[in-house]
Structures are given as C-alpha cells and as structure tokens.
C-alpha cells in the first residue's frame, strides 16, 4: 500500500458527502457513541461496492442504463427521505438521550443504506483501486481486497474523528432551540443537495 494511495483516499474520504453529513448529524443530536455507530454503518456500506468492483458487477452498472438508473433513483429517494426526517422535530435530528442506546442498530442500518444506495461508489472503486495495483501483480484481486479494506479503515477513522469533534460542541447546540431549528434545515438542505447531485449523475 503506497503513500499516494493513503493520501488520495484521505482526500476522497474527508470530502463532504452523505456519510460525513449523517455522522455529523448523529454526533450533534445523539452524542459520540451514536456517531461511532453511524461511522460504522457508513463504512459497512462500502463492502458491497468493493465486492461489486472485484466481481465485475460495477461494470454492469457502468454499461447498463437500467441497472444504474434503478439504483440511482432508489438512492435519490432515500436521501430525500433523510431530508424529510431531518426537518421533523421527532425525526432523525431529534435529541433523545434515553433512546440513544436503542437506536444504535437503527443508526448502523441507516448509515449502511446511505452508502449502498449510491451506484457511483461501485464505479468509483472499479476506477480507483486498480490505479494502485502494479501491472506485474500476480494476485490483483487479493491486492484490490487489501486496498479496499484499507480504504474502509481510513473511512471509519476519519468519520469517527468528524463525529467526536462534532460531539464536543453538542451541548452548546442542543440547548438552543433556534440553533437546532437551523441545524435541521441545514442538514435537510444538505441531503437534498446530495440527492440532486446523485440525480444528475451519469454512468
């Protein structure tokens, strides 16, 4: 695993996207423990895309307009659902200290769905990982798996850092109703923007 792979991966991972947005939302409303669960769920959602890239299924998404569109619009619909949930006072950004432990499983599942419903990720890994595999590599699939696992570890670490940083200012945020209102609107707008970006994505 080269230094260039690590640096490139960190740039890609740290760029604001659905996973980052969801982890921050979890941290600000339900604390650091739930934000770690969100980070884990988003990281877990990468597994099917890496598998798809290794098995060549990403190539199907790239060549089949129907398959790509079906997964893409499911992703768009889910992001719009997340935006609606963010706006609701009892929705995704509801502050519930007692329910935090019970919501860990739900948080992981939601993070998983956010990433698995983005067809661009499969195509990204199909184009991204082979760049760092030498032409003379005897076991390219094994090397791709190793790079994929490394990318997931880096993703989890960066998302956890995002979440812990957001959790530090949580008390100052949730104690102010006006701030919470604007926070809901901001995250809702963010999910809508990401949904729109995905809607206009091409193969």
Structural overview:
The chain is mainly alpha-helical. It has one domain (17-199). Helix content is 77%, strand content 0%. Helix 4 crosses helix 8 (119-128). The chain starts with a helix and ends with a helix. The model has no long low-confidence stretch (mean pLDDT 78).
Shape: globular
Strand segment count: 0
Beta fraction: under 5%
Q: Indicate the percent of residues in helices.
A: over 70%
Task: Profile the largest sheet.
Answer: none
- Count the helices. How many? 11
Give the topology string: H per helix, E per strand: HHHHHHHHHHH
Detail the poorly predicted runs.
none
Whole-angstrom Rg:
18 Å
Overall mean pLDDT stands at 78
Spatial separation of the terminal alpha carbons:
28 Å
Q: Class by helix and strand content?
A: mainly alpha
Quaternary organization: single chain
Number of domains: 1
Fill in the keyword field for this structure.
single chain; 203 residues; mainly alpha; 77% helix
Write the layout of secondary structure elements.
Elements: H1 3-14, H2 18-30, H3 32-44, H4 47-55, H5 57-63, H6 65-87, H7 104-116, H8 119-128, H9 140-168, H10 170-174, H11 177-199
